[in-house]
Design brief:
This protein has 16 helices and 13 strands. By secondary structure, the chain is of the alpha/beta class. It has two domains: 3-216, NAD(P)-binding Rossmann-like Domain (Rossmann fold), CATH 3.40.50.720; 309-439, Rossmann fold, CATH 3.40.50. Strand 4, helix 5 and strand 5 form a beta-alpha-beta unit. Helix 2 (33-42) crosses helix 4, helix 5 (113-124) packs parallel to helix 6 and helix 8 packs across helix 10. It is globular, with a radius of gyration of 24 Å.
Length: 442
């Protein structure tokens, strides 16, 4: 064995032993925090996870994932972490990742409360010299205006007693290709030493480029820009769907045609509305923060309004098709297929399902729901049971369990109308069976 190879192996061994001695604490073991915790353990760190409820901590400590996620279901049993509700144990952590939710309220005002509470818990129990990374999505300025002052109020000097960085989470639940191991990240910090520490950590656990940002505020801005970009493009095609409906043009066919252009076009598709914890939430963080600084994001506000209108628009399409059959929506049993905001996950945060339900209730329709991934919120136990009860159906979420739904099945169960809220079904097949089909913009 060459001397160079021996040296490299010795360095790798030393590095591995050092990682084993470092402890990573993850505050918030949800869709973001739990995969990060498992990945850090997989890469050799000792990991403590902090959860509010003992019930969830017990599930994680048993080696089971409380979240439906392929990566977690495979890796958590192989890389067990210790979950606890005792925040005093933050003192054991060399690196602390804050991964708490940042929702908006019913008036779309950002709620920074969870970030504030988590920061206070960490500051009260900080190990001297620890690296603290905020992963929660926030508007530009939160690290400077809220997080840093909390640590300073507890007597910690940033850059000496604590190193604070921001690495906005990037996670795509249910994605078979992109997960916590391989999605590129951006990092910003208050000091160069803090940035170096954060880069070293993320470069250790993630097999993808980590881009350092010049300022922590730039790192905060990246996430809201990413998801605002998506929100704007989806709003554009949702408005096209409404327009093309009037013009008698199939919007899906047009988008597929436009997507043949090999440059300067990125296909987005209309649907019954946007869900999840990012796209329908993040633009409001930028809108509200800019408003406080005296700037009005008219474009973002318009996009949000368009996308927020889609659940009601979906119900209006159902009402229109029922009217054509001389059937009132009032009193009609409507089956809703899917509660989750996206296919093949159990995540119902900000799901358009709930706005569709509210709209149907206003119209006095009867509702029966089924989601194989969220059985506790389902009214029935199977697709066939829902079809047996429903006179009309809205496909809310295109779960794999619904992909065999076709015209013959709808006809067999005497479903009169189906609204395809995600344009996933075979329109021609359904219409051939004599069932009324309506998609979003088709």
């Amino acid at each position: 064995m060459s001397e160079k190879t021996k040296t490299e192996k010795r360095k790798e061994k030393d590095r591995s032993q050092k990682l084993e001695r470092e402890t990573v604490g993850v505050v918030g073991l949800g869709y973001v925090g739990l995969p990060l915790a498992v990945r850090a353990r997989e890469k050799g760190f000792r990991v403590l996870g902090f959860e509010r409820t003992q019930e969830k901590a017990d599930i994680i400590n048993s080696g089971q994932s409380p979240i439906e996620d392929e990566y977690l279901e495979k890796k958590l049993p192989e890389n067990p972490i210790e979950a606890t509700t005792d925040t005093a144990r933050i003192k054991e952590c060399d690196i602390v990742l804050i991964c708490v939710p940042t929702p908006v309220d019913e008036f779309h005002n950002p709620d920074i409360g969870p970030v504030r509470q988590a920061s206070e818990s960490v500051a009260e129990n900080l190990k001297p010299g620890a690296l603290v990374v905020l992963e929660s999505t926030v508007n530009p300025g939160v690290s400077e205006e809220i997080v840093k002052p909390i640590f300073e109020a507890k007597g910690h000097e940033v850059g000496k007693d604590v190193f604070i960085a921001h690495c906005p989470e990037r996670i795509n639940p249910g994605d078979p290709k992109w997960n916590v191991t391989n999605i590129p990240r951006v990092v910003g910090a208050f000091t160069q030493e803090g940035l170096r520490k954060a880069l070293r950590f993320y470069e250790t656990i993630i097999d993808a480029p980590i881009k350092p940002m010049k300022h922590i505020r730039e790192a905060e801005a990246c996430k809201v820009v990413e998801n605002s970009f998506r929100d704007i493009n989806i709003a554009f095609v949702n408005e096209l769907a409404k327009s093309f409906d009037v013009l008698g043009i199939d919007v899906k066919d047009v988008i597929d045609g436009a997507a043949t252009k090999p440059f300067a076009f990125l296909a987005h598709y209309p649907s019954r509305g946007i869900g999840g914890h990012c796209i329908p939430v993040d633009p409001y963080y930028l809108i509200e923060r800019a408003k406080r600084a005296g700037f009005d994001h008219k474009f973002l506000r318009t996009s949000r309004a368009i996308n927020n209108s889609m659940p009601a628009y979906t119900v209006s399409l159902l009402q229109e098709k029922l009217n054509d059959l001389k059937m009132p929506l009032n009193g009609t049993k409507v089956g809703l297929l899917g509660i989750a905001y996206k296919p093949n996950v159990d995540d119902d945060r900000e799901s358009p399902y709930y706005d569709i339900v509210a709209e149907l209730r206003k119209k006095k329709a009867e509702i029966v729901s089924f989601d194989p991934h969220i059985p506790k919120r389902s009214d029935v136990n199977s697709l066939t049971e829902l079809l047996r009860e429903a006179e009309a159906v809205i496909l809310v979420t295109n779960h794999r369990e619904f992909q065999d739904l076709d015209g013959e099945m709808l006809k067999e169960y005497k479903v009169k109308v189906i609204v395809d809220g995600v344009n996933a079904l075979d329109k021609d097949d359904i219409e051939k069976a004599g069932v009324v089909y309506k998609g979003i913009g088709r």
